[in-house]
Fold this protein.
Amino acid sequence: MLSGWTLSLLALAYIGVLFTVAWLGDRPESRRLVSSPWVYALSMAVYCTAWTFYGSVGRATTTGIGFLPIYLGPTLAAALSWVLLRKIVRISKRERITSIADFVAARYGKSRGLGALVTLVAVVGTVPYLALQLKAVATTYLLLAGDGNASDGALLRTSLVAAAVLAIFAILFGTRHIDLTEQHSGLVLAVAFESVVKLVAFLAVGLWVVFSLYDGPSELFQRAFERPELARLATFQPSWSSWIWMMLLAWSAILFLPRQFQVAVVENFDEDHLPRAAWVFPLYLLAINLFVLPIAFAGHLCFDTVAGPAVDADTFVLRLPLAEGETALALLVFIGGLSAATAMVIVECVALSTMVANDLVLPFVLRPALGGADSDLGGHLVLIRRLAIIGILGLGQLYMMAVGAHTSLVSIGLVSFAAIAQLAPAILGGLYWKGATRRGAVAGLIGGFAVWAYTLPMPTLVESGYLPASWLLEGPFGLAWLCPRALFGLTELDPISHAMLFSLLVNVGAFLGVSSIGGPSAMESRQARRFVDVFRHGAGTEPPLWRTDTSVEAIRSLLGRFLGADRTQDLLDDYFRDRGLEADDAQVAGAELVAHAERLLAGTTGAASAHIALRSVAEEHPLEPDEVVHLLDETSRVLATSRQLEEKSRQLESATGELRDANTRLRELDRLKDDFLATMTHELRTPLTSIRAFTEILHDHPRLSDTKRREFLAIVLKENERLTRLISQVLDLTKIESETLGEPSAEDPAALIGDAAASFTGLFDEHGIDLELRLAEGLPRVEVNRDLVLQVLINLLSNALKFTPAGGWIAIEATAHNGGRRRWVEIAVADNGPGVPPTERETIFDKFRQVSDPAKRPSHGIGLGLAICRGIIDKHGGSVWVEDSEQGGARFAFTVPAAGDLPQQPGAQR
Amino acid sequence: MTQRVLIVEDEPNIVLSLEFLLGEEGYEVRVAESGEDALEQVPRWRPQLVLLDIMLPGLDGFEICRRLRTTETPPKVILLTARGDGAEKVKGLDLGAAAYITKPFSARALLADVRRILAESEDDG
């Protein structure tokens, strides 16, 4: 045992060390150390308070591994947390957010009411938790001093001293700057330092218990499992719902507890530190939980909790080394617990004092002063924060006196978490849902907080005797469904899960419901865009829709009152330099400068107060109606013009496309014309060459034999005919291409075919070629120009004649079929000649296109015959093609339309 | 020694007239109906002159002209064409053709060219 004054001296010495660390951290030379991601990650471990340090073991002695979800939640959701945190940090840096209340207020249209509400929830939710820390410090102090069963009075006196020392620390290191968005480097360094101390202390006692008190973990567990009530603790028998709620609770706490927001967001030095914290922090949680269960078992075994006198399991960590006479270790544990408690108290006080000053006192109590002539509001603000710290610690002390001394404080941590969890819907909704409104957030918060107050703290009041006990058992006024721990008769859940379920149900329901009724105001929408779209480039940077008549001078003087003249000068110089403007106090401050000044001020007073302050000097003349109309006109004119431009550009684009297509078509036509001319020339010159050559021969060789002479003359005649035929074909083609079809008549296809075939009878007989007619029954009449279709048939037949070997066959076929909306008659000329290779089947219908394989080439070019056929059939709307006939020859087929309105002519074919 | 002339032409009547004209002049004449046929005959028969139509099925006259130059004893080439545009003439002469004659041609002028070119080839050795 140690004497009281030795212990006090030791505690004060440790606090002295903390002061030194904090003082060092505030020096500019320490900038590099303080801005390290390690310090940032470790400072987050302010999450682990005395409640962790002592309370985890306490919980483990009764619920076994039931203490775990509080640390599992943040670990499992780590990835999600860092995504959220990154967004919150980005927003907070841009908007110069000073606290979580400020964050919520700023998001919902810089609402001072909402800021105040969040502050109240935070204070009410956190004060019991503060009381818990004070009690832990006091209890362990008294325990070490050998006063394990100290009176309440001694406890309160001790905690009062602790509160006072902590208040001094918080005031010294937490209220140094006027601008809150500047990091409290010293404070953060001290907190990180304390995180290391408490971890070392806890690991030390853990290792000592496992390896010194017992012979390694196996012996400890073996001894523990001999006792059935201890073996039970190590088995996993949780209620799932309770674990899930617990993890959810812890997860929301890690993000939204005022002190977590302070270290993770406000004190964040660099967004890039987040990834480091993302794995260091869960690792820290794992390390500090490693020995919880062994210590709990050892405590049970050591103090024989079943038979012996009740020993507060919350103090096992300290009592074990004390009982074994390990005073030094016990001191280390005490220092570790002290670290955990003081870090929490200090950061929480700084965070809460900011909120109280900026979101309660400034916008409500000091509202008139915001726009007044007071020259040093900044100084006042610091004073308010300092008073707030004292006030908050005082409240903690009072709470301990009123409730804490009687009631177990073990569950206070969770109750506190549950209050803070009420902030989650408004914050998460605000981060991702632009439709969330201030009214929705207020409704959700009030509803959720009310249910929380009814289901969690209220029963404590009953247990402390302030309210009739029947309320807990039968419900208030005998209304069983209102029973605070079994709303609507739901008794299956533990109190925390029960409270979470109903409070969040009400909270989320009200938040969504009220947000959906009536959309956000203009200001809320603007802020919503700035928050939700923070990662989008340029989001929320649109100019404000109002103008001011305020001079730069007025803005300067307002800022000066909060920030001091020098700093204001610097900030404004920066502003004008960045925009390449000349600072001129007499000129009118644009809306942009006013918005900028508001943001600057927000870093000191919070968004809501800054908004009020700026409004008091820079009256926002909402734009006059005619100005609005003008602005809207302007906008709609610009919009219309841009629409017209778009339309024009689209038209131009399509015109360009059309021109390009037309050009391509023209080029193609040009090429076709060149080809046609070249081929035409060739086709004309070839017979001319023969004619000229033979004429010369006949002329120059008068003594040629009669036979030769006749042979040569025959050639001259034949070539002459070929020329004549060619010329008339060209004329035909030109005529067909340029003229219309003329009036078609309804013709009997069988008769047409018969006429065509008749003109070839002699020729076919001459070549020994067999002609077959294969005409379907009941062919309809066709609607054609008779002479033209007859020419097609004749062309095809003479073609076939050229290719069909002597003794072969040629067939004319005709069938009717439906195609599209019309009936068609297909007429084909097939032969058993060499056929047309597939690659040539398209081009063969081109002008002068000849089959290139010389083996299948006739002595005379095909010339224009097929081109003429295609021209004619095209005019009739039909199509013409070539395919294989059944014996590998060619089958040239074409379709012509049936005369729809004319009756069929059965038996019309020959 | 009789000089050999190969006619490469696919139009039978023109072949007939050329055969007659050159035969009367006392040349030994053979006919190829396609480029492939011509390329096969030249190395074996070694004509001193090839009368080459440009518009042939398969390989065209220019291509045949190019390949003929790579044979062991490249014959002189007279290109015949029914198209007759300036660019083609230049192209043919660039490929080493000795003359470029447009159809319809004068038989006398053609024979004069043949004589001149064969005389040159004799001078060459």
